[in-house]
Amino acid sequence: MARRKSRKEAHSFMTTPEKKRKPRTATEATVTAVRRLTPDLVRISFDSPGIKGRELPFTDHYLKLLFVPEEADYSWPYNLAEIKESLPRNLHPVTRTYTFRHVDTAAGTFEVDFVTHGDEGLAGPWAKHAKEGDVIAFLGPGGAWGPEDTYEHFVLVGDESAAPAIARALEELPAGATAAAYIEVADEHSHFEMPEAAGVELTWVHRDGATHGHQLSEVVRGAGIPTQRTAWFVHGVAEMLKEMRRFLFFDNEVAKEDVSISGYWRIGMTEDQWQASKQDFNAEIEAAEEQLAAQH
Ligand SMILES: Cc1cc2nc3c(=O)[nH]c(=O)nc-3n(C[C@H](O)[C@H](O)[C@H](O)COP(=O)(O)OP(=O)(O)OC[C@H]3O[C@@H](n4cnc5c(N)ncnc54)[C@H](O)[C@@H]3O)c2cc1C
């Protein structure tokens, strides 16, 4: 059974106090297979002996892939600590975060599902053109959430970027628990294989040209609040957070400790830009919520 960090550590909206960081070393992974799941989703299998024996108890374990800036004159294998010490920040490797869709720490293998989203960015285009034998380095894995057996029911909400974490949670549901998963995709031609089990209800939500996250928030709101003791996992495009938080915390007073909610990416921003602005974005939402509460 998956377990999670304390709620305080895991809740993505909380700011973590600055910790003294250990120097981090990168691990290598080699592409062993590439499979297109839908027009916008590609599954890549990796061989990575460096993950052998790692303990990965959560269902949202993720890694940070490292991309060397074009203007830098080094390539993998490199010493990350040395690079960070000797080169200016703009020449450090750039990170992109991805979830393990499958991971086998005995064999040292894993799979990642990449949303390819056109030609912009680093990781999406890299995945689009990846082939057997390509090598990439990564940091991590990190992770924080898993379906705990103190809950009877799970509501799992996300777009394609959160589908791997949702799929893994469905595979690790506590005995007897039920789940409702809501996954937003481009349209009816963009469905992919998801775990099926008794007590699991999967709803595909089609954007059909609407802004990412809009239809998803509408459908989840329409479904209402389950009557069982429920945990929520709500991740994906940042644009849905305001609406989902209002639905959960303001309209329905769901306890914050029952909810894991955060933006995995933001429309029009690179991951670096999103990470740099996340705190302000969250603070703005929280201020708007306080104002709303004061009016009632
Ligand atoms: C914990 C965590 C786990 C994640 N797991 C996954 C995962 O398993 N699979 C996955 O695909 N993503 C996952 N993501 C999201 C992924 O890290 C971002 O989508 C990231 O921005 C992609 O990097 P990029 O280099 O392709 O694009 P960037 O350089 O970051 O962005 C370039 C442009 O592409 C847009 N863009 C970025 N992502 C998307 C998208 N999904 N759809 C449409 N447009 C987009 C941006 O808004 C920007 O305009 C995860 C994020 C986090 C924080």
From TrEMBL:
Cross-referenced Gene3D superfamilies: Nucleotide-binding domain of ferredoxin-NADP reductase (FNR) module, Translation factors
CDD domains, alphabetized: siderophore_interacting
Listed PROSITE patterns: FAD_FR (PS51384)
Superkingdom as given in the UniProt entry: Bacteria
A GO term for molecular function: oxidoreductase activity
All residue ranges annotated as the FAD-binding FR-type domain in the record: 24-148
Chain spans, region Disordered: 1-26
Name of the featured protein: Vibriobactin utilization protein ViuB
